[in-house]
Every structure is written in C-alpha cells, then in structure tokens.
Amino acid sequence: MPGTVIVGTQWGDEGKGRFTDYLAKESELVVRYQGGHNAGHTIVVDGEVFALQLVPSGVLYDWVTPVIANGVVVDPAVLIDEIDMLCRKGVDATRVRLSGNAHLIMPYHQELDRVTERYLGKNKLGTTKRGIGPAYADKAARVGIRVQDLLDPKIFRAKLELALREKNGVLAKVYNRLPLDANEICERYLAMLPRLEPMIADTVHLVHEALDAGQRVLFEGAQATYLDLDHGTYPFVTSSNPIAGGVCTGAGVGPGAVDRVIGVTKAYTTRVGAGPFPTELFEGDAVGDLLVERGHEFGTNTGRRRRPGWLDAVMLRHAVRLNGCTEIAMTKLDVLAPLTELKVCVAYEDDDGARYEHVPYHQSVLHKVRPVYETLPGWGGEIDDAARVEDLPAAARDYVRFVEEIARVPVSFVSVGPGREQTVVLPRAA
Ligand code: GDP
Ligand code: IMO
Ligand code: MG
After folding, report:
1. What is the reported pLDDT for 92?
2. Does the reported pTM lie above 0.85?
C-alpha cells in the first residue's frame, strides 16, 4: 500500500502535527523525512498538549513506529530530552527508529547559526538558531558527521577533529569567538550513545518492509513549501526540501511509494522570520492582531510572534502543483469566526498595473506586489464544536468551497480547534 505525505503549503505552522496525529491512527509507520528541531508540531489530546520537535507525530499511538529518516538533521540531546518528556507523560517513545545516515547537529552548527545571524544584522533570516543551515551545509560539503559515526568512537573523534580544525578557525578569526573543545564534545556526544544505540536502524529498509507488507506509511513534513530550499522564498527559507518530493531523498523511496499528498493549509496565513509576504497584515492592523490573538500565533519552538495575513490562493495553487497535492486539510477555520468579511488573495498586481495569477519567479517582483482580494462573507459565530460538515454555517462551507475551487483539489478535512476531536471530515474523503 503506497504512502501518504503531509506537507505544509504555506510558511509552516499550518497544523501538520495535528493532522499527522489524526491520520497516524490508521498507520503503522510515521516518518519524518527532513528538517530538525526547528520544527514545532503541536498535538492536543483531551486537553493535554504535546509539543514535538523531532519525534514524529504518530508517537501517541502505541502501534505506530515513529521513524526519523536519513533526511533529518538530529541534535541527539534534544531527541533524548523529547523522549524523556514523552515518557513522563506516559508515552513510550523508545520505539523511535533513527537512521544511521541522518546527520548530527553539532555544537559548532548552533554557534555558527547564532553568529552568522548576528553578523547579518538587519539582513538576518530570522532562523530558529538550531544549527539547521550549518548542519545541512556540512552535509552538502561532505564534512558532516552522521549518527552511525557515533558507533565507532575513533571515527567520530577523527571526523570531529577534522571539522573543528576548520570551524574553530572560522569561529575565532571571522567571528571573534572562543574555539570549541574536541574532548568536551566527544565526551558529551559519546555519553549519549547508550541511549541512542537501541534506536539506530536501517530506516530505508524499515520503510520498504512496511510498504511491501501493505502497511500504511505516513510521511510527516516539517517546515513548508515556501520554506523549501529550492522552491521557497530564497534566501528566506530553511535548508532542506520540505516539499513532497523531499520524501524520495529524505526517506529513500521512489515517487511511486506515494499516492496521497495532503497539503495542510491554514485558513489564513502566518510566517515566522523574515522574507516576502504579500498578504501580510502588519502589527496594529485590527484583523492581523485578531488572527494572532485568537490563533495563539506564537511559535511553539521559539515563542516568536508569527506574522499574520489573509489566505493567499496564488501561493496555494502553486503549492498544490509543487507537491502534487491530491487534497487539502484546512486548519484553524474557527479563528476566523468573529470576522464579518474574509479576504482571499486571488492575484497580485504591481505598480505598473501588471497582474500575476501565478507566483512570480523573480523575487524582487514578489517583494513589491500588492494582493488582489476577493471578499467573502463571514459567519459571525463560533464553530469550534462542529463535528460534521452540516454543523458548519453556510458561509463557512462557502469559504471552504471557494478555496477548493481556486486550489483545484478537494478539501478533505477542516479543523475547528486544536483538539484531536475537532476535525471535520468532508464527505468525499469518508
Ligand atoms: P505545525 O508546525 O504545522 O505542526 O503547526 P504548529 O503546531 O506549530 O502550529 C499550529 C498551532 O495551531 C498549534 O498550537 C495547534 O495546537 C493549533 N491548531 C491546530 N489546528 C487548529 C485549529 O483547527 N484551530 C485552532 N484554534 N488551533 C489549531
Ligand atoms: P514547522 O515544522 C515556521 C523558519 C524560520 C526562518 C527560516 C529558516 O513547525 O512548521 P531555520 O532555523 O530552519 O534555518 O530557519 O525558516 N522556520 C519555520 N517557520 N515553522 C517551522 O517549522 C519552521 N522551521 C523553520 O523561522 O524564517
Ligand atoms: Mg510548527
């Protein structure tokens, strides 16, 4: 049985974690294929909040094997802390399987992420400072250290010393920082091996065994389409490929292994960090402030206020193409409840009057365009206890229908609150 991909269609924090959790119920494997602990995926079950960064969001079901695949970059201390946090909450997360090919985030990656951001000054990207960019850069430069290197202390030390020779030079000479100590890092990382070793596995084999056995495999994207290194708003992106295509390299499967791609789309838009955002509603805008307040739009990971804006259907349509979305899961529809009118961006215009119905490839254009909106009526009442589509007011259904038509794929699910049960399944998907 082929797999399903959950992918963010905007700039992250769409609610991928809650939908992964929702669909994990019917899966045997849930696989993270890229990113690292820059992700913050929130699941709410019976009022209890689980904030996950590295452990796949299927972990709450004891029949699911959560897999951290080769495409992920892993800070082992964060992984261990997260597993311990889950154990304290009564979830046995020792079932996690960790690819030996995944790259390690090292202390110098985090340090470089911090100092390069500081040096960029007002041009900074607003990264999560988790060392993600530098870790992927080392992977591409073929000087990365992988999880499997921990299994041989001699190799680990040799690779670390080689890396530090360059990193300490850069830290000291370019950024005026103190050099990092190989002994200290070696000790700290190797001390974690007893906790990590039982989890280390050939995850490509695991995924293929599951697929061959007809089991359901769910691939959980982190970040999102417009944070994609190749297809996002470069350079204001992350350093991996969150788009559905990233599953192939990040988990080691061919395109045929996937037959369902669910694009998770917030009913409006948010973005953390810097970069263009055509439908942004700036701080002080009454609607923007309402979205932040009602949507609790502060990062799970860094606590930063997320920048709010109206739904951008131009970007959504393009995201559907880039990911091959077969359907959409729309989240946070409940947040829009008090608004009397809703806007959806259906095109862009520039100062010369040119109209764009697709995302302009030239970023200078995207920085300057103005959104062209279509206005739809709001429904003016809370919907957070809607359980079926019939429970939604007509205007809310019309909003979903409008998005569906413009995205040209069906909306299969709508969520009306953070709770697992606050999920409305639209008839087609049943
Ligand atoms: P992810 O990174 O895509 O998994 O999303 P996050 O977990 O970072 O951010 C989504 C936030 O919205 C979390 O705090 C969720 O609990 C919350 N959330 C998810 N779906 C809904 C919804 O339908 N309504 C409301 N009000 N909150 C939601
Ligand atoms: P989830 O999985 C929202 C953003 C950062 C920054 C840019 C680069 O929870 O949706 P990085 O640390 O990756 O080098 O930062 O990407 N970013 C996210 N924004 N949600 C995320 O993850 C993000 N992960 C990274 O804010 O703008
Ligand atoms: Mg998040």
Report:
1. 93
2. yes
